[in-house]
Every structure is written in structure tokens, then in C-alpha cells.
Backbone:
């Protein structure tokens, strides 16, 4: 079992409760994708039975072309989106794949997360990014909050607006890799504006935690409320981001 967040779980500088998911992976010195429900490492387990049912449904309901070209395991790990991730070490910066406005948060991958299901407690210490988000993994906490501050800035959000696709009622919708088109420079701790974005990003994350509800049906209104709560901090962030993007000193590392 691992944890994840959907795009709708992300708010500026924070996130709603993580979700527990099952992934067909073996964790040893590296990450290995399972290839069958009757693989020897899981034989006789409840997870084997779960995968057997999943394979049956795939073979019955998947499009013929998909069944011919790949297994259910190949589809889950399409373009190695699963096995290329590092779920235990460092930090993951997430931003929403589709929304009217950008929203980003930082996840500490090794943080223990507890779930209570039918009075049984599960404690999980790993995180995988979901396909509804874009992510960047780093071992540097400072780099993570630097990027999170930029992705939550009004400045970058306004820059992507002319390029976003539009929904049925004309509203901005898809974001995808648009934020990466504006020459975000690599984090440099020697640059004052970079360090300020780190410090204020950490402050914002701590502040947002105090305003996250236990249960909520939609994160849309909550995102707006959080931006109002962080109005002063976001104003400072925008000043820094405007200066940074104007310099165009190079791009970040790859964000998937």
C-alpha cells in the first residue's frame, strides 16, 4: 500500500487527506513491477486474489487493441510513470493538471501517514504522484518550497492564462506543462529572492494546515479562501517571482 493525492486534493501550499492505494509493485533495493497475480513473491496472499480479479476485468473489458499490445501491468506503468518515481526519499512538488488556476503543494515522501479502516490502523511511509498531477521530486526541501511558491504565484498563473484550453462555458481549464514554458530558473540559495520564496513558502504551508477541514466535497471554493488568507504572503511572492522570471536565467530540472 502507498499514498497518493489527486489533483482535486491539492490547494495552494497544502492538501486534503492523502488516499491509500494498492500498486502492483515489489519494494526491495529497487522498485519492481509485478507481471502476474501468481508471481511467487505474492502467491497465497489476498493481494494476489485482488490482482487476479483485476487481470480478469482487464481481459474482459479493455479495448481489443490495448489487450493485444499490453497487460494491465504495462498499462498501469505506462511510459514508466509508476516505476520511475522515488516514493520514499526527499520531497515531491505537485501542481494540478487541470483547473482554472494553478495550485501547488509539497509532500514529504518519507512522512508516516495513518489510515483507520474498519478499526484497523494502517501506517504507510511512501508517496506516489497520481496521473492527474504533475510532479517534481527533489532531495532539497528548499528547492521544493521555492518551486511551490512559484507555482502558486499570481504572476505565473496569469502568464499561462492565454494558453489554457477552454471549457464548454469559456472558462480556463487545462494546465498541463504550460507553467514550465516560462524559464523558471534553477534554485540558487545565494540569490535573495530565491531564499525569500523558500522561507515564505514554508510559512504559507504551516499557515494553510491550520485552515484545512477534515472533510470537504470540493476543493475549488477552499482554494479561493486560502488565497484570501494568504493575500499578504502571495503579494510578496509575486514581487519575487516577477523579478526572477524577468531574468530568464534558465529552466528547472524536468518536472513530469
Residues:
Amino acid at each position: 500500500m502507498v499514498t497518493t493525492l489527486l489533483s482535486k486534493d491539492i490547494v495552494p501550499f497544502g492538501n486534503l487527506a492523502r488516499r491509500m492505494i494498492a500498486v502492483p509493485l515489489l519494494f526491495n533495493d529497487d522498485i519492481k513491477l509485478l507481471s502476474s497475480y501468481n508471481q511467487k513473491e505474492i502467491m497465497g496472499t489476498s493481494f494476489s486474489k485482488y490482482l487476479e480479479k483485476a487481470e480478469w476485468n482487464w481481459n474482459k473489458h479493455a479495448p481489443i487493441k490495448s489487450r493485444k499490445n499490453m497487460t494491465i501491468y504495462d498499462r498501469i506503468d505506462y511510459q514508466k510513470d509508476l516505476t520511475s518515481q522515488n516514493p520514499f526519499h526527499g520531497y515531491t512538488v505537485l501542481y494540478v493538471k487541470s483547473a482554472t488556476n494553478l495550485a501547488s503543494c509539497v509532500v514529504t515522501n518519507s512522512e508516516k501517514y495513518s489510515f483507520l479502516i474498519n478499526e484497523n490502523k494502517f501506517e504507510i511511509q511512501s508517496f506516489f504522484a497520481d496521473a492527474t498531477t504533475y510532479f517534481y521530486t527533489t532531495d532539497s526541501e528548499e528547492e521544493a518550497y521555492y518551486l511551490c511558491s512559484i507555482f502558486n504565484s499570481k504572476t505565473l498563473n496569469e502568464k499561462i492564462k492565454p494558453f489554457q484550453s477552454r471549457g464548454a462555458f469559456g472558462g480556463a481549464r487545462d494546465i498541463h506543462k504550460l507553467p514550465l514554458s516560462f524559464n523558471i530558473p534553477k534554485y540558487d540559495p545565494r540569490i535573495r529572492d530565491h531564499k525569500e520564496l523558500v522561507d515564505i513558502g514554508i510559512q504559507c504551508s504551516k499557515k494553510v494546515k491550520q485552515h484545512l477541514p477534515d472533510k470537504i466535497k470540493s476543493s475549488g471554493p477552499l482554494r479561493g479562501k486560502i488565497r484570501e488568507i494568504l493575500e499578504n504572503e502571495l503579494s510578496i511572492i509575486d514581487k519575487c517571482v516577477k523579478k526572477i522570471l524577468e531574468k530568464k536565467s534558465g529552466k528547472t530540472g524536468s518536472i513530469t
